Amino acid sequence: MNKVVNRYILKEISIPFFMIIFILTFALLMGRILQLMDLMINRGIYFADIAKLVLYLMPSLLIITIPVSLLISILMGMGRLSRDNEILVLKSSGLSLYQLMTPIAFVSLCAFLMTAATGFFLVPYGNLATRNLLFDIAKQKASIGIKERVFNDDFAGLVLYSEEIPSHGDYMKSVFISDTRMLEEPATIIAQKGYFISNPESMQITLRLEDGSIHTVSKDLTTYKKIDFSSYDINLDLSTSIGGKNRITAKDSKEMSLPELIRKSRAHGLKETAMKEFIIEIHKKFTLPFACIVFGIIGIPLGIAKHRSGKSRGFVIGLIVIMIYYVLQIGGEALGETGMLSPAIGAWISNVMLGVIGVYLLIAAAREKPLIPDSIRNIRVRTRI
C-alpha cells in the first residue's frame, strides 16, 4: 500500500514541479530575450550567437527556479490532497504524516542534487561562457558593423568614418575619427589605414591606425597641435556596442568554481571586503541547494493546513515564503559583507531560520496540533475586539 501511496503523491507533486520550472524560467528569460532580440535586429548579431547566450543564461535562472518550483508544487499538491480530504483518509488508514513524507523527501533530494549540480558546475561555466561570447560578439560587431562612407558611433566617445573598406573587410582605408573622450581637448584623427586587433586574455579590442596625424585644438581655441604618427592604437570602449556589458579583465566571483573560490579567499594580501565576498559566494554554493530541503520541510505542514480557499492558495503562500526567504538571504549577506555578522552566518541565516520554523510546523502538523499556538490566537482575537 505504501508504494501505491508514494507513487500517487509523487505524481501529484512532480507534474506541477516541472510545469512551474518551465513557466518561471520562461518568464525570467523574457526580459533578457527582449534585450537579446535588440542585439540581433538593431546590432546585426547572428541568431546562433543569440541562441548561445540564451543557453548560457539558463543555469543562473534554474538555480533560482528549481527551489521555487519545488515549494510551490508541494504546496499545491499537498493542498489539493488536503482539500479533497485524501490526507484525512490516508491518516485514517494508519499512515502517519512522517510516512507520507517519503515521496516529498525524494523530490526534495532530487531538487537538491539538481540545484547543487547547476550551482557547482553549470553556473560558473555559463557566466564565463557568456562573458567570452559577448567579447566575441563585440569583436564581430567591431569588424562587421563598420560600413564605408557611414559615420559610426558604436564606440563610446568616438565617431568613426572610413572612405573605403575592401570586400574582405580586413582593414579600412582613409579613416577619419572624432575623439571626444577627453572633453577638455577633443581630437580629430586622420589615417591612411586602420584595422582591428583583439586580445582575448585582456578582453580588449584595439583599433590600430597607420600613417596618419592627430589634430587638437585647445578649449579656448588659441592653440592648435598636430602630431604625425606611423602607428597609433586606440583602445575601444565596447560598453555601448554589446548592450551595456562592460569589459572585465579578471574572473568575477560568480564565474569561479568552488576550488577557485577557496583559493582566492585564502590568497595573501587580499582585501577584507573581497575576502568576505568570496566566503559568501562559497557558502552560497551550498545554501541555495539546501533551500530545497528547507522548502520541502516547510511546504508539507503549510500545504495540508485546513483552508477554504481554492488552488491559488498554494501559489500565494509559496510566493510569501519565497519572498521571506530571499529577504533574509539578502539581508544576511549584506550583514556579512559589512562585518556585522560572520559571512558564513550571514549566508546561512535564511536557511536556519526557515528550517527551524519548518521543523516546528511539521512536528505540530504530525501531532495534529494547530500550526499557530493558542496563546498567539488569543492575542489576535483580543486585538480584533
Describe the protein.
This protein has helices at 2-43, 47-83, 86-92, 97-144, 258-265, 272-304, 312-338, 343-366, 374-384; strands spanning 158-164, 172-179, 187-199, 204-217, 224-235. The chain is 62% helix and 14% strand. With 385 residues, the chain is an alpha+beta fold. Strands 1-2-3-4-5 form a five-stranded antiparallel β-sheet. It has nine helices and five strands; from the N terminus they run ααααβββββααααα. The longest helix has 48 residues, at 97-144. The protein has two domains: 2-140 and 253-384, no CATH class; 157-235.
Helix content: 55-70%
Apparent shape: elongated
| Spatial gap, N to C terminus | 49 Å
Strand composition percent: 5-15%
Please outline the helices and strands.
Layout: H1 2-43, H2 47-83, H3 86-92, H4 97-144, E1 158-164, E2 172-179, E3 187-199, E4 204-217, E5 224-235, H5 258-265, H6 272-304, H7 312-338, H8 343-366, H9 374-384
Antiparallel strand pairs: 1-2, 2-3, 3-4, 4-5
